[in-house]
Design brief:
- The complex is a heterodimer.
- Chain A contains nine helices and no strands.
- Chain A is mainly alpha-helical.
- By secondary structure, chain B is mainly alpha-helical.
- Among the domains of chain B are: 55 residues, 3-methyladenine DNA Glycosylase II, Chain A, domain 3 (Orthogonal Bundle), CATH 1.10.15.40; 67 residues, Alpha-Beta Plaits, CATH 3.30.70.20.
- The N and C termini of chain B lie far apart (96 Å).
- In chain B, 17% of the residues are buried.
- The chains are: A mainly alpha, B mainly alpha.
- At the A-B interface, helix 3 and helix 4 of A face helix 1 of B.
């Protein structure tokens, strides 16, 4: 039980997918201009990441490993993730046209989001079990959402403050993200790596 | 042998996901024509019927299907026609009008108050509620609300409503766009004296 809790804590704070592992920077910079879009993007990514880490694990464990086809994991994970994101986009368009308009291009961008493929590959690298893979994916997505929401809140304030013209927009965003990564380094000692 | 299994597994995965996505695209189909929505958002929404369609939405749907030209909306005027041409990536057409306007300014309706009998028929006809008045009281058109759709002109029993172009004020004055005029230059035949002489001699 504690190791499941440790996985969640580890992925949300210690090994944050964006600030420690530097995956998923594209939607991190792109969707974080407004708080509402950031929350929507975080929810969509959570859904996709959890579902794709579970299905990637299933494909790896029951289709690739028995036939010694582990080298196919990259392409089959991409296939799985693309299908899930396509499915998610159709569902979002039907259930919430507002969210669909707000997220726009960033929904299919989750497909090429290296965070999703990265989590799936890290699961195989760490030989996680089914529950561990699911929790790893879910925790990474929660960490992504947390950092995205924090960053969006900061960027909204940055947009209203007196930034020198050369730094306005993405430049000050990158600098702020770097400072956030520095701050999150403080969590490194939270989990003792055996 | 392993290559065959690899190919089969990948093809199988792709087939399964293709089936799931195909089912999802039918089950979660979104009704509505996004192009008609975009066209409708550009139209002025006066619902006057001058485009021969019963309202702006049917005209927008006809434009989206390609059944109607984009120059049939007088209240929208030149700006709407150009915006539609930009959206649909077609050639701008000249506005479809029987009587040409003297100026480019949009027209508003004006009630000639000496003739008005207070019958309220024009008030009922106005789609944007731009006419102020009551039974047996004077009717007036609020100039800022009038969209120039001309729906009030037919119902008036004494024909006291006329259309008048807006005054040009400092706020709405525009430069006239430069008009290219074709200049024809006369062709002057240049005769080279020296050559002519040498040929003849």
């Amino acid at each position: 039980m504690t190791e499941y809790l440790l996985i969640i804590v580890g992925t949300v704070w210690v090994n944050n997918i964006v600030l420690s592992q530097f995956l998923g920077l594209c939607p991190f910079m792109g969707v974080s201009r407004k708080l509402e879009t950031a929350v929507g993007m975080g929810l969509a990514t959570t859904f996709v990441l959890t579902l794709s880490s579970i299905s990637s694990f299933l494909v790896y464990e029951y289709l690739l490993e028995p036939f010694h086809l582990e080298y196919l994991k990259t392409i089959s994970f991409i296939l799985v993730i693309a299908a899930i994101v396509g499915f998610t986009e159709l569902v979002v368009q039907k259930t919430s046209p507002l969210l669909h308009n707000v997220l726009g291009i960033y929904l299919p961008l989750i497909t090429t989001n290296c965070a999703v493929l990265g989590v799936a590959l890290l699961n195989t690298q760490q030989s996680n079990s089914f529950i561990e893979s699911a929790l790893y994916g879910f925790g990474s997505a929660i960490g992504f959402t947390l950092v995205l929401v924090l960053f969006a809140a900061m960027r909204e304030r940055l947009a209203a403050s007196d930034v020198p013209e050369a730094f306005q927009g993405s430049a000050i965003g990158m600098i702020t993200a770097g400072l956030m990564a520095l701050a999150f380094m403080g969590f490194t000692g939270l989990i003792k790596v055996s | 042998m392993t290559i065959l299994t690899a190919v089969l597994i990948l093809v199988g995965l792709a087939a399964v996901f293709g089936l799931i996505l195909g089912y999802a695209s039918v089950r979660f189909k979104v009704e509505g024509d996004p192009l008609a929505d975009k066209v409708d958002s550009l139209l002025p929404q006066t619902q006057c019927g001058q485009c021969t369609f019963p309202g702006c939405r049917p005209y927008a749907e006809a434009i989206a299907k390609g059944e109607a030209p984009i120059n049939q909306c007088p209240p929208g005027g030149e700006t709407t026609m150009l915006a539609l041409a930009d959206l649909l990536d077609v050639e701008p057409l000249a506005l479809d009008e029987e009587d040409s306007k003297e100026s480019d300014m949009p027209e508003v309706a004006i009630i000639i108050e000496e003739d008005c009998i207070g019958c309220t028929l024009c008030i009922q006809a106005c789609p944007v509620d731009a006419i102020v008045g009551a039974a047996k009281m004077m009717h007036t058109v609020i100039e800022s609300e009038c969209t120039g759709c001309e729906l009030c002109l037919p119902p008036c029993p004494v024909d006291c409503i006329i259309m008048q172009p807006l005054d040009t004020t400092i706020d709405n004055w525009k430069w006239k766009p430069p008009v290219a005029t074709e200049k024809t230059y006369p062709v002057i035949p240049i005769v080279l004296e020296t050559n002519a002489k040498s040929i003849r001699s």
